Amino acid sequence: MNDRIVVIGEALIDLIQQSDGRYEAKPGGAPANVSIALARLGTHVSYAGRMSTDKFGEKLYNWLSPEKIDMSLVERTSDPTTLAVASLDDQGKASYSFYLKGTSDWGWTLDSFANLEADPPAAIVIGSVATAIEPGASVIESLAGHLHSREASTVVIDLNIRPGLGFERAAETVRVERQIKLAHIVKASDDDLAWLYPEHGPAETAGAWAAAGHYVIMTRGAEGATLFTPSGDSVSVKAPTIDLVDTVGAGDSFLGATLYGLQQLAALGGRAEAALAKVTVDQWTNLLELAARVGAITCSRAGCNPPTLAELGL
């Protein structure tokens, strides 16, 4: 059985505001962060990203290479590296603006994922900016649709809505509603849901998506997270108390740990709906508590630096 988890999406440079007002260049990108979190938990993970051959692209490649991540799906390109400027508020929460026109992350072609069609992984993780920017977004969406319709892989979408991209809310809502139909598991923050549907409470939206057949994990920052299931069950976990440094990569680490937990339960792979339906409320509680712990540890460190299995005592 193929136990590989493939994470598709951007690796970019975060220019992060420092306390003295300077900006420091740090490797980032939600999909790349998820890949690191999975790798540090001992998961067989492949990262599929397009990386520039410029200096920033080399920095990104050298950042991911030491991790136990399969990099065979990485495409190198002369297109410049995508930049995200992260400004932190008084609580260490990041807001982003982007420099992405003509940059490396969005140039996927229909041939890029032919091997994944032929040899489907246990799960694919899509989302974030990569599913919003063309031409690559349509390629990723097509792959997810094929794997979902064939019941070949568990499809996971991590929304990571970025208002700083300047998209119209109505257009983004149409895109998101179309893409989540291709997913078995949807992860979204309460901020994502509040931005998409300001007229509804985030939990109301998450519950409606779950009723339509999805497992919806809504992260709530320092308040923890809540799972909504198609059967109508919900599971809430609290976030451990920590000394906050910043929240960069916290949600990505949380997702990586969630998928690690599901894989330990043999709940990822083909025929995903049947596999996920076998996960009990108690099992969901345990794995989400682990994910909350992993996210909290990441918040206690600068940047996205998720813990290893050894650090977790596992």
Provide structural commentary.
The chain has 314 residues and is α/β, with parallel strands linked by helices. The chain has one domain (30-51, 107-312): Ribokinase (UDP-N-acetylmuramoyl-L-alanine:D-glutamate ligase), CATH 3.40.1190.20. Helix content is 36%, strand content 21%. The protein contains 11 helices and 14 strands. The chain has helices spanning 30-40, 55-64, 114-118, 136-149, 169-180, 190-196, 202-211, 250-264, 272-277, 281-299, 309-312; strands spanning 5-8, 12-17, 23-28, 45-48, 50-52, 75-77, 83-88, 94-99, 123-127, 154-158, 185-189, 215-219, 225-228, 234-237. The strands form 3 sheets. An 8-stranded mixed β-sheet has the order 4-1-9-10-11-12-13-14, sandwiched between helices. Strand 7 (83-88) and strand 8 (94-99) form a beta hairpin. Helix 1 (30-40) packs across helix 8 and helix 8 (250-264) runs antiparallel to helix 10 (281-299). The longest helix has 19 residues, at 281-299. The chain is globular. The chain starts with a strand and ends with a helix.
